[in-house]
Amino acid sequence: MSSQHTPRTSGEPPQSPPAPGPREGDGLQAGLKNRHLSMIAIGGVIGAGLFIGSKAGIADAGPGILLSYALAGLLVVLVMRMLGEMAAAQPTSGSFSTYADRALGRWAGFTIGWLYWFFWSVVLAVEATAAAEILEGWAPAVPQWGWALLVMLVLTGTNLISVGSYGEFEFWFAGIKVVAIIAFIVIGVIAFAGLPPADHFAGAENLTGHGGFLPNGPGAILSGMLLVVFSFMGSEIVTLAAAESPNPVDAVRKAVNSVIWRIGLFYIGSIFVIVSLLPWDSKAIASEGPYVAVLNSLDIPYAGTVMDIVVLTAVLSCLNSGLYTASRMAFSLGERKDAPASFGRTNGRGVPTTAILASVAFGFIAVFFNYIAKDTVFEFLLNSSGAVALFVWLVICASQLRMRRRIERETPEKLTVRMWLYPYLTWATIGLIVFVIGYMFTDEDGRVQMILSLAVAAVVLVASLVKDRIVRRRGEPLPGVPAPSGEDGTGPDATAAGRVPKPAGEADPGTRPALGGVRRPAAGAGPAR
Asked: What does the angle CA 187 – CA 188 – CA 192 come to, to the nearest 5 degrees?
């Protein structure tokens, strides 16, 4: 990367004026503001699955879906705590993929990075199609594929302009979701208390009636968890985005510390309102969707239209974030030579153009298959990416087990976020994830997703091993990643997994060392917070 311009001191010869803005190859830019990151963190846990997919969980587990959401939420809180510990100590655009590379080996970083990219590239097609269905209902003159194309092109354009434009769009998208959920909960609490427009105090009649709190038995809690656990995918996006902010450590710390109340309020709070105000087996929940059904039962005017707008916003938010996330993972893979080198390059605005276009191209291909081969090729893409969330969480846990010891040994001052009860709670989380993976094999739909996801993961893993063997045969050094200590790369783990130690003093004067390719001004002397 090129060094940044430094001020000329007295007596030095005049220098050429600096270029107006970052130059090609300077890496990602710290273009996200604090308000962007705050809303990305808050809105990241509110996906379209909450509005659309929650009805399947309610139908499966009844009011017991609250326990399913609580169990899945607990899992996400623990995983995010581990990821936050690593991200606060070593912010990078590759997030958990880079940490897996450092802690477990190049095979792990390569495999989980490409699986994560694959997951979000498929999500692009799913969300583009969902947005097109809503928009076609409003303007049927435009065919559904035309709306899908338009949505993809618009959000691709915003991501290509700058990371700041992505942040601005996501700020408003997430803001609408947050306001809508809070308003829904407030209305629901008023109705639950028996105040107008409700007719009477709801109490616990819908929670304990109609077959009881667990009408389909305790096993339905785990079945419901399988339906809702994947809706939490996206909470980790803030750890990738934080690397493109002026103060990534503070951003990660705030996001991790707030994840408990975010999940408790937006997920458990809103689902509690639904199962309290309506019987879980209400036909309206199945036909209209849970949120619309509740609002219609309270005679809220234009409830369907309002929720369509909110769902569309959630879908566009997920699509926007999915494109950003896929491109940044591709950029990190390119930097580590685990993807084409062009993926790891940026333009003059610090935007990884090739990584964005490659992600969009795969998304367009998936959209195409959704229209011509929905029940074959597209269904395969959905099922083969269905268990990636569990794989990602498992790798985060395994990486944290090793990274924690390494950070404590080399840079303990950077442990500003700590996993609770380490290592016992980490092992307990691993056990819970493995249990969920095993339980998926007992569920018909889950079994298909797990088998296909494992098959794709095996293919990617073999590709990683073959690639490294080819590189070794050619006698080329395996690409390096920043040293675990973030400093000179020396020590017993510096050359682990074929990495090359970074020479001391490599950073340019006036800049801090790049973290995941992100350039920022020097923050003064002293260790990073």
From this structure: 120
3-state secondary structure of 518: strand
Query: What is the share, in percent, of the chain residues with pLDDT greater than 90?
Result: 36
Q: Which two tokens stand for residue 107?
A: 């095979």
Mean local confidence (pLDDT), 126-131:
89
Q: What is the pLDDT of residue 249?
A: 85
By CB atoms closer than 10 A (0-12, 13-18, 19+), residue 106 is buried
What burial class does residue 136 get, using C-beta atoms within 10 Å of its C-beta: 0-12 exposed, 13-18 middle, 19+ buried? middle
Phi, psi of 363 (to 5 degrees): -60, -40
398 vs 250, residue with greater confidence: 398
Nearest to 373 by CA among 381, 384, 362: 381
Alpha helices in 411-443 (DSSP H): 424-440
Task: Quote the CA–CA distance of 195 and 258 in Å, as a whole number.
Answer: 31
Write b or e for each residue in 51-77: b if 16 or more Cβ atoms lie within 10 A of its Cβ, otherwise e. Answer: bbbbbebbbbbbbbbbbbbbbbbebbb
Position 295, amino acid? L
Q: Kindly compute the dihedral angle of the four CA atoms of residues 340, 342, 346, 348, in this order, to the nearest 10 degrees.
A: 180
Question: Tokens at residue 172, please?
Answer: 């408003």
Kindly calculate the radius of gyration of the chain based on its CA atoms and give it in whole angstroms: 24
User: Which amino acid would we find at residue 218?
Assistant: P
Q: Is the pTM of this model over 0.85?
A: no
With cut-offs at 50, 70 and 90, classify the pLDDT of residue 231. confident
Angle, CA 365 vertex, CA 360 and CA 370 arms, to 5°: 120
> Does residue 513 register a pLDDT over 70?
no
Which segments within 322-458 are labelled E, that is strand? none
Helices 388-410 and 65-89, packing angle to 10 deg: 40
Backbone angles phi and psi of 521, in degrees to 5: -65, 155
Q: What is the reported pLDDT for 199?
A: 66
Q: From CA 43, how far away is CA 415, in angstroms rounded?
A: 26
